[in-house]
Amino acid sequence: MAAIEILGLEKTYMVGFWRKRPKRALSPLQLTVEDGEIFGFLGPNGAGKTTTLKLLMGLVFPTAGSARILDHEWNDPSVKAQIGFLPEQPYFYDHLTAHELLEYYGQLSGVPAKQRRQRVEQVLQQVGLRDVQGVQLRKFSKGMLQRVGIGQAILHDPKLVFFDEPMSGLDPMGRREVRDLMEQLKHEGKTVFFSTHILSDAETLCDRVAIIHKGELRGVGAVEDLTSSVQGKVEVIWQGTLVPASIKALGAECHATGDRVRVIIAENQQDAVIDILRRERQRLIAVTPVRTSLEAYFVEKLRRAETTAGSPT
Amino acid sequence: MNTRIAYIAANTFREAVRDRVLYNLIAFALLLSGAAILVGQISIEIEKLVVINLGLTAVSLFGVVIAIFIGIGLVSKEIDKRTLYTVLSRPVRRWEFIIGKFFGLAGTLVVNTFFMAIGVFVALLYVAHKLIRADALILVALYFIILEFVIVCSLALLFSSFSSPLLSAIFSFSLFVIGSFGEDLRNFAGMAHGVSRWLAMGAAYLVPNLSPFNVISSIAHEQPVAGQLVLHNTLYALFYAIMVLSAAILIFEYRDLK
User: Fold this and answer.
1) A2-226 has which CATH code?
2) I need a labelling partner for A221 at 20 to 30 A (CA). Which of A267, B81, B124, B230 fits?
3) By three-state DSSP, how is residue A140 classified?
4) Closest to B128 in 3D by CA, of B220, B217, B205, B212
5) Contact status, residue B51 vs residue B123, Cβ threshold 8 Å
């Protein structure tokens, strides 16, 4: 079953004070997110990621199109009890403490009182805020607010969680914890839809990703499929500090770091380089084909989009 | 009441309390005790009149200022700070949010008025040394003041649902001032002719008529209030607030939260 089906969702804002003119934020978007997967929604700033999330949350209204979430119409209020949402750079009622805020959101989500108390404690522990649960949010740092945001999104044990830039404002430990949390949610059978422009996070976590740029979907697929295209190059690593002249002569791209040397060569030069290393009595560590990284794929997609947009018609 | 509305109202009340809105009570207490001591020294036999007039007028003005300055930010502040996003992404309907906010603010004002009312009676006891049966009429004046707050809260909330806090404050305060002379506006409309008569009549019925809610002076003179006026004011305030809140919901229901 699809957790999210976006059916031609489109958004055009009217901008300007006197003379209103249309500004398209999202071109008709078709996208399906399967149940139980971690789905990354990638794009540079201003690409339309947040607009898509706001449309799905019913915070803005689509110009055209519709969507289905967990087999319900996206604007059906009952479906909201089953979804969690973390907005980008979240800000909460700063007169409340972390405990009170989670309690309040639990009430609004319809979590029964007894279960709510237990769940609030559990989530505070999970997001690492148990020690500061009695402190008003106006005294929280950006990273702590992000943790509160994640806490409120998972508080009511939703089936589907939307995170808008969840790693924003977090230190490396915090980012690691959020990654672990997302993996845990997946293990619990939940679907995670998150937007980011940090590609390494997406590459590590996502089953599938979609790339959006200037409101248009540029690519979608499994991370392995997008990054599996072999470039016809091989990376050779050995222990040493010097690159033999005969390898340099092959036109290899050489990098020496510490006591290791890494060269990238054409696939058909692989045997020749290994023979040279044997002759030179160097200790070979690894020979691996060079694959396209998600970053390379992303950059290529955006570059192609820019070229298409800039080419004369 | 719908439980989500109750939770939103309770949170709005808690926010007002924690943002030290009730600190105005200190200013009110100082004003009233100062006035009571002063009139006790300079006036003969009219101390009670002065204390009732001053006390109830202060209750009304303090409350209106709170209603406007909290009311204008009830929706717009939540949009600006994006606190609304995490509320509306839950099973909360937009109309529930508006109604919850309204009850939260109205509740804050009722509690505030309750404490101010105690202050008025204490000041009265100080200058008159005893309370008489006619002093119970002050409760009617306080009830009318609360009804006035209900109208002002709904107006501030309406403007907050589509306009900036500054404009909302200007609109709300202007309507309160015009509404306080609502009876005069209606009389003027009755005297006008042609198109201006229709325009003045339209304006007179559109703005709230707050004149009948001001019974402070007659109560200070121990004149009774007709039961019919209590019924009229109650129905008018409820009808007006419901109409204004419906307009606020209608606007907010279709608003994009950019």
Assistant:
1) 3.40.50.300
2) A267
3) coil
4) B220
5) yes
How much is the mean pLDDT over chain B?
Answer: 90
| Cβ separation B258–A78 shorter than 8 A | no
User: Which is more confident, A303 or A116?
Assistant: A116
User: In chain A, where does the domain assigned CATH 3.40.50.300 lie?
Assistant: 2-226
Structure tokens at B151: 């109208």
Q: How many helices (H) and strands (E) does chain A have?
A: 10, 14
Rounded to an integer, what distance in angstroms lies between the CA atom of residue B76 and that of residue A58?
18
B81, B91, B254 member nearest A109 (Cβ): B91
* Chain A: closest CA distance from residue B204 (Å): 30
Q: Is the pLDDT of residue A256 over 60?
A: yes
Q: What is the mean pLDDT of residues A106-130?
A: 93
Q: Is A130 a residue whose pLDDT tops 50?
A: yes
Confidence of residue A7 (pLDDT cuts 50, 70, 90): very high
Measured between beta carbons, which residues in chain B are less than 8 angstroms from residue A89?
82
At A313 the pLDDT is: 41
Q: Which residue has the tokens 């409309």?
A: B189
So what CATH class is A231-291? alpha beta
Per-residue model confidence as pLDDT tens digits over B49-82: 888 988 899 999 999 999 998 999 889 889 988 8
Q: How many CB pairs under 8 A join A and B?
A: 77
Residues B139-194: pLDDT tens digits?
999 999 999 999 999 999 999 999 888 999 999 999 999 999 888 888 888 888 88
B-chain residue closest to A11, CA distance? B256
Q: Which of A93, A107, A109 sits opposite B15 (nearest CB)?
A: A93
pLDDT score of B155: 96
Percentage, residues of chain A above pLDDT 90: 56
Which of B15, B81, B92 lies nearest to residue A108, judging by beta carbons?
B92
Distance from CA of B144 to the nearest CA of A (A): 32
Q: Which strand (E) or helix (H) includes residue A76?
A: none
Region A184-200: what's the mean pLDDT?
Answer: 90
CB proximity list for A308: less than 8 A, separation 6 or greater = none
Q: Give CA torsion, residues B80, B81, B85, B91, to 10 deg.
A: -100
Closest CA of chain B from A61, distance in Å: 6
- Distance from the A92 Cα atom to the nearest Cα atom in chain B, whole angstroms: 5
- Cβ-defined contact of A108 to B15 (cutoff 8 Å): no
pTM attached to this predicted model: 0.85
List Cα–Cα distances, B130 to A67, A167, B55, B58, B241, in angstroms.
Answer: 70, 67, 17, 22, 38
Q: Give me the amino acid identity at A158.
A: P
